Amino acid sequence: MATTSHSYSDPNSSLCSDGGGDPVIDLDVLDSLDLSRSGSSWNYMESCITATRNGKSSLLSSISQFTAILAQTGIEGPWISRTPNLAKMAIKIGAGAQFTVFKEKPEYDTKPQPVVIKRVNVPLSQDEGGHFAAGHTYRLQLRTLGLEVMALTNPSLRSHPNIVRLIAWGYDYPFFDMPVPVLYMETALTSLTSLLAVNSEHNCTVDVKYQLSLDIANGIEALHRLRIVHGDLKPDNVLVFRTQNDDVPFRGKLSDFGVCLDLETPNSPFSLSDYRGTPGWLAPEIVNDDLSRFPPFQPDLMFHFDAYSFGLTVLSVFTNHGGPFAQVTTESATQMILQESNLTSTLRMTLGKAIPKLLHEDPTQRPLPSTRLLETETTAYDSWLLSCRIKSEGNVNRIIQELIKQYAASKSDFSGSVLFGMAQAITGQYPYVPGRFEMYLTDASKAGHSPARAVYAQIMAALGHSLACEPEVLEEWMYQAVSQGYLFAPASALTAARKTHALSIFRDSGGFCTGPFLQKPTVVKAARSTESSLLWIDKHGLFVDQMGNTILHAAAAIGEVDTVRALIETAKISVDIENDNGETPLYMASQAGHAEVIMLLIQMNADASRTTRQTKLSPLHWLFVLPESMIRSIAAQLVAAGADVNAVMRPIVSKNANDFSLRMLVLHYPFELPYGTPLHWAAFFRNLVAMEALIQLGAHVDATYHASDSGSRPLALAVWLGDLEVADCLIRHGADGTLTDSHGQNLLHKSGADINAKARDYNASTPIAVASRAGIRNGGVVIALLDSGAELEGSTMGLGNSVLHAWASTMVGSLNYPCSYVPTIERIATAMSNVNLRNEFRETPLHLLAWSYFPEDTFEKACEILLAHKPAVDLNAQTCKGVTPLSIAFSIRGDAARRGLFLLDKGALPDILSDRGQDILYWVADNEALSDQATCDLIIIILQRMSTTSNIYETYQLRFLHNQMSNWTLFRAASLGKLQTTILLLSLGLRTRINDLLPDTNCTVLDTVLHQAENYRRNHMEQLAKYKPGPARRAAVAAVALHSHEHQGGKTYQRAEAYHAFPKIMRSLREAGAQRRCELESGTTDSTDMDGTYINQPQLWDWAFIYMSGFTPATQPHREQWAMLYELARYPTEWPVVDYMVEWYENNTWRPDVRFIEEEKDGDVVRQVIARIGQPVEDKERAVRLKAIDPVMGSVEVTVVDREIVKRTKIDAFVLWDFIAP
């Protein structure tokens, strides 16, 4: 192919100059990489692997390739122009065999975030003559950049929490005609070796070491998933970054990478010597260059070489400060772990199992690195897992709650896929919020998300809601969904002609094929034409993607009969050519439902007996994708061509996956594919024609999944899914309904056989109990079983719950058909002789009903059913803690007033006390979802309904005040910041008990309020610090975002209200005669010399920690309203506050703020602290040196003379370690 030249007038053009003329773009090589898909989703690695398969060069060998490739990835750049170069603007901070690492000098550092610069090593001498960029050595050195770029721009690694991030790219110009590629990487705190050093300033606890080991495992696992071998794993090559998470303060990341096994070529096969590594961290077979005692070398063994280095690295992290070992055996490693005194028993056991396996002398016996090897049931692991999910996948509950808040504020920014995910995530969420699921589903559909549109009408009908769009819109939604693979469209949703057309679009787009080539427009276009496909082979080669798919696979997948014929007859491509997974063109044509292509391939002697390499899927598994008119004929032809009608899929179980099978996902409902035989698949997709055809051809009607029991038969799955037509078809063809699975469950347990048979599980569950379990709760099945004679008396569930308990605690919104709830409760209650059964907590069904989150009219209907029962439900039953249904009703986060007053009107007694002496008004005051006004009003209403004289004060004193624990209510109202309620309770008579001590805390109500108020004061400043001063902070305050957050029940805590109410509550209590416990003990309120430090008080926090929130004691918000908080603080004369601060400083948990040193009013405390923590400065009288925090410079070392800072020097950042302020 001829070289094409393009002229650029820009002297800083990013393309290199070849021999002083115009820049030359190596189009042959770039064409082989298929740069047709620009943007951040383009996968350079995938293109390289495909090019390698086709015998093309896949490694960087010119600067023009570097430019063209990086420009396609979405990575920012280029950042550097020719002048000045790195020699002038940066400092070298490290060097290795492939790269030199630089950090920019401060005066040149204008980047938006801290970065280091990696420059590929090239010889800086003109030993070859001519221009540097044209030299052979220069081009060879560029190739060392290839894998680095390949890995760092890979979509799955770019956002990985344990792979260092590539920020941008550019060039350095050591000489005018020598552009050298550079990569801008995120800046690490240090290396793992430095972090673990004996003299390190960082406090590496066992938990930190454990979490960093998990980071390494997670990073290696990600590389191996892409078939990248690290090749030099050791603590030096693990970079450590700080996080903002106190539970996981550091994050370990991998940077340098070895080889990608998919880039091996026949002319240059990998060998043992390609695994280089560092002495001291290598597996013994590498050191000895000897595999004679083990299987011969195969490239995949390199993953197990990494496993050995990983084992040594983890062992060193825990036992050797990150240093290498002179010699290690599995026995010595075990001893080191046993002798390491800092390890917990759980971690010792985990490491004791994992590391000897990783250090096994036979490389084939080493498990591949995985976080599962190090998984423990510990807080450290849970925190690490949560932090990873927040960063990448995201912890579902926290992320969903945040999305809910954001969506309420700005709906326009949400895509349909996110909304549909939110709808799925909150299904069955506790507690149930009416209307939320329907809103997200509707908005996801309106936003264009096809999977949401596919199921919208059916779900809304099941929920009993009207549709938010016209019928013609629904038809277009369903048409779109079917054209993308939704195969469950009801007959009424589309006309037969439109459904046929939509299915043809789906098949022509590749059907259920998933090959990467389908995302390459140039490949699909070539496969559409006979001439273009043949030209593709001449230009690019046979292969079209990294999975080994060929142009013939592509043509078969999109149904191009003429192209398939030409490629086999003219290009002489084998009719049974396989990709990496063993998929043939016949398999792909079946996967896409192309009957004509299947028939052609069979005519050309395609072997239908072949199955996929990993899962053993056959073309017959995809029979349901074909047009119904062709199913019987194609099925018969496939069987005649060798297809096994009873081929059983083998689920993929990855190494270290705890025997869980990997799921095969699809875009539309049911969102994942089944296991089993072709009959399982046909039944799963409700294709009765395919089922009949397979059974007639000899399919076993009671076939099971691979290595499974009768519970995985097609009939069992149909019953589980409630699919009447499929179940009827299977039974008509001889399916046995009496078989039981390994748990003793028959088909009645799954959705009939002995109708009261008990399963061999912990609770000996009956079918009706199973149908009532959380996550199943099928009202139709329950009613059908009861109508068929099922017994309820012996049907118990976990924790002694009856079937009625289970249904009483049901969230209506979690049911597939919410309208079934009341009829089911009624049918169950009618079948029971006693509706007051108790579980292990002495709870009756009414207790659970009172807790449940669903609309109040539904609650009231269910209550009426239980009240109408003979004998009626006991409204006043008490749990093992003395709690009544009425107490619970007044505690809920929903409409507590309506629910509680309903029970009160039905005869519930309000005088019953809990075992701790809490009266009914306590539960009202304790309800955080009720505002102060709502709480106050509800207490008045309750007292009015109890009163015979309309005098609520008299009623309270007669019915409540005699209770010695009545002050519980006052404590709770005051501690929640409910001012009006507090004043009301004092006026009702609790003023007489204002100084009683609460048994739980041995504090007075004033102590309790002071403690809570201080917590709110601190929290307010900590939350304010999250917002920039100015409009953002004012908006947060106006939106009460600092204190109130959405509760799961849709209510908000009244924390903003409480923040401003606490000062008034303190004053009201004090005016009513409230004292602190320390005042009662000392007999005076005049002296401040007493010990009140048994609660949180402001002084110490102000001295040590207020500065972290960006405030000082003088500049804190609302300083004047907190005056009484300071006035009522009590400190003993011998308060060891200085000792505390010195201890924190010496333990690296605290540094003084410079404003504390220079501005704090209590100079004596400051001077004592400085004298204790400061180091004398030679030749400077009264001068001491210490580490501090400067609000502008950050961590500094300061020289102090008489509280005046005379010198400040910036030092490494300081991390606050696992510290809770007193």
TrEMBL record:
<dbReference type="GO" id="GO:0005524">
    <property type="term" value="F:ATP binding"/>
</dbReference>
<dbReference type="Pfam" id="PF00023">
    <property type="entry name" value="Ank"/>
</dbReference>
<dbReference type="InterPro" id="IPR002110">
    <property type="entry name" value="Ankyrin_rpt"/>
</dbReference>
<dbReference type="InterPro" id="IPR052391">
    <property type="entry name" value="E3_Ligase-Neurotoxin"/>
</dbReference>
<dbReference type="GO" id="GO:0004672">
    <property type="term" value="F:protein kinase activity"/>
</dbReference>
<dbReference type="InterPro" id="IPR008271">
    <property type="entry name" value="Ser/Thr_kinase_AS"/>
</dbReference>
<protein>
    <submittedName>
        <fullName>Ankyrin repeat protein</fullName>
    </submittedName>
</protein>
<dbReference type="Pfam" id="PF00069">
    <property type="entry name" value="Pkinase"/>
</dbReference>
<dbReference type="InterPro" id="IPR036770">
    <property type="entry name" value="Ankyrin_rpt-contain_sf"/>
</dbReference>
<dbReference type="InterPro" id="IPR000719">
    <property type="entry name" value="Prot_kinase_dom"/>
</dbReference>
<dbReference type="Pfam" id="PF12796">
    <property type="entry name" value="Ank_2"/>
</dbReference>
<dbReference type="InterPro" id="IPR011009">
    <property type="entry name" value="Kinase-like_dom_sf"/>
</dbReference>
